Amino acid sequence: MKERDYQIEVRTLLARIYTEVETQWYPFRGRGREIYSPAIDIAVGPFAISERHEERYTNLLEHTRVFINNLIDIHNKNVEIEEEQTSFEKILLFNENARCLIGIEVEKTGSRKHCIGDLVNASALGRIGLLIAWNPDMLRVFLRQRMYLSYLKSVGKNTFRTDNALVLTKDQFDDCLHGIA
Questions:
Q1: How many domains does the chain have?
Q2: What span, in angstroms and rounded, lies between the C-alpha atoms of 51 and 9?
Q3: Phi and psi (nearest 5°) for 68?
Q4: What three-state secondary structure class fits 169?
């Protein structure tokens, strides 16, 4: 399956619990060329374009807590290191000024530089950043990059916090999606 076809399938499945789901979402479209505007593979709204939605995001997370906890549980098993694990409560209070509820990046064969961009964009733009690794190699890349950024923080270096970034394989994510009631 091509990544684009997969994005459409994911959008359809997420639409069972979320009313606003878009593929290839540009959070800064219309701002001209003065700002870089990454495309998020799949984004769950509401979309904070001209106003903030902290309370709506919190309510949506609470309303879909079972689904979110499934994602968190799988992520925590993938990272193995306790310091890299997260919880619903940590995510609930992280990146409150997000542009979307969930920013999802799907990666099949990207370079490491491309993957770190996916990690930063998903984490910065979503209340939850979700990184879907198409294969075990991409899973290792995302997990190592996430740990690298965390390590920089732990030794007092400039870094970017990715506390809200969850890393799952495509198969793991598919299982979560198919478990949506």
A1: 1
A2: 29
A3: -65, -40
A4: strand
**Nearest 5°: phi and psi at 126?**
-105, 150
Pairing status of strand 40-44 against strand 100-107: antiparallel
pLDDT of the residue at 19: 96
Give the integer Cα–Cα distance in Å for 46 and 52: 9
- In our burial notation (b when 16+ CB lie closer than 10 A, e otherwise), range 86-125 reads beeeebbebbeebbbbbbbbbbeebeeeebbebbbbbbbb
Distance between CA 63 and CA 59 in Å, rounded? 6
Q: What is the pLDDT of residue 32?
A: 65
126 contacts: CB under 8 Å, gap ≥ 6? 40, 43, 44, 95, 98, 99, 100, 101, 102, 103, 104, 164
pLDDT at 11: 97
pLDDT tens figures, 162-181: 999 999 999 999 999 999 86
Domain membership of residue 138 as a residue range = 3-178
| Omega before residue 136 within 30° of 0, cis | no
Per-residue pLDDT for 34 more than 90? Answer: no
Q: Judge whether 160 and 150 are in contact, CB under 8 Å.
A: no
Helix ranges, 25-178 (H): 54-63, 65-79, 88-92, 112-125, 136-154, 170-178
| Angle of CA points 88, 89, 93, to nearest 5° | 110
